Amino acid sequence: MKMSKLLSAGLSTMLVACAPSVPNDPNPEPEKLYAVVGQVEVYLSTVDQTHLFTKVEAATVFDRSQAPTSGFDVRINPNKRYQTIVGSGASFTDSSAYLINQVLSNEERDQLMIRLFDRKEGIGLSFIRQPMGASDFARDFYTYNDMPNGQTDENLEYFSIDHDRTDIIPLLQQALRINPDVKIMASPWSAPGWMKTSDSTIGGQLKPQYYAVYGEYFVKFIQAYRDAGIDIYAITPQNEPLYVPVHYPGMGMNAHQQTQFIKNGLAPAFQKAGITTKILAYDHNWDRKDYPLDVLKNIPDLVDGVAWHVYGGQVTAMSEVFREFPNHDVYFTEASGGEWVPPFEQAFLGEIKTGIDVFRNHSKTYVLWNFALDENNGPVVPGFGRSTCRGVVTVNQQTGELTYNLDYYALAHFSKFTQPQAVRIDSTKAEGNYTSVAFLNPDQSVNLVVYNMSNQARNALIHLDDQTIVIPMQGKAVATVTFTIKEKPQE
Known about the structure:
The chain is an alpha/beta fold. It has helices at 3-18, 94-103, 106-117, 168-178, 211-227, 255-273, 290-298, 316-324, 345-360, 406-415, and strands at residues 34-45, 54-56, 60-63, 72-84, 87-91, 127-132, 183-188, 234-235, 278-285, 305-309, 329-334, 337-338, 365-370, 372-373, 389-390, 393-395, 402-404, 423-427, 434-440, 445-452, 458-464, 467-473, 478-487. The chain has two domains: 34-84 and 424-487, Golgi alpha-mannosidase II (Immunoglobulin-like), CATH 2.60.40; 87-417, TIM Barrel, CATH 3.20.20. Helices cover 26% and strands 27% of the residues.
């Protein structure tokens, strides 16, 4: 994206090409050995809902030779490290922001924000994905540069983020005050209608003649948010570019079009303005890995990574693309809970399994969809009909009641004890029997998420070198296990 990045990429390639082959070290250093120190805390969720991310009795740590042997074995290896974690979270859509900022009382809003973002009193969410303009979950159609039919604004003289100043920006500012580690990405559902073949936020494609103008549109958005004290960590050029909805904002953008827009519009605009915001390709489902591969093969130096959604294909697509482009980061950016999966058991366990899977397939993030929806799964844009999606919380517009949904507790398992700059470390799974994911924090604490996939109550036997942590788990239960480790002296 930057000239320095291009030069360093080229230099790196030259160095690799010119380097002599080096045989494997015949005397590699032995792996470090680790030991658990202090107390092991356990937070449990069960499908009968008697436990919802509930702290239970501290676990017992045994010498391996003296530990129980009945249960399933989870082995963690801090020597084997993968991606650095950015965080988990959801989206302050127009609808979510309105419900939280206007329907809730100030006291309820502040308490909710603490429970979402505070690391001590809440679950420490640290990643937010923001629509740039209206999505399906907005009270009306809007972009940041709407013009009367037949008129254009190629100099973007009427560009304005004023719509966001009422609810969205205040909540983002509050989230950053509570948790300064929060990272914010942004994705448009549609360009302004006058830039598109449909002359509307619904349908159509971006006209090539406006590639450069639309690149400047992104720059103005990032700069305006920065002026409001909000840095944009990453953007995607288009939400779900292979799906063009007929009832809400959307825009088709195939892989070739996305490549050309980034190459001829977005990246030059960023470079000219000195914007360092990451550019992530795709932002759609696992079933079309050919799309991000096409983009990465054509403009690898202009793209920082790939964003993925849950609604089609297999999670392993993320790893398959990563294997071909290991220098490009992986981000999982949308999974909505909804009425198509029965609550509580199927829906909750599905979100836990998805979270474990996306992190095990190199994602730096796990992001659900709306932070809040109302009792009718809205508000939605006019003409959309009734939504079947579920928010992380529900804000009843009739009664004002606030309900924390299963999605909140699913996010808690991954977020509460995973610190900024944590890295995923190796942990075992046995598909259909149990699965797990583990993170090592900078302070040497571990956050391990374990899911007992069996209907039977069993012990989770968590092995770290010559120690075993024993966690009694009900059938279909999920545990977050957190403890501190230290390196043992080499013998």
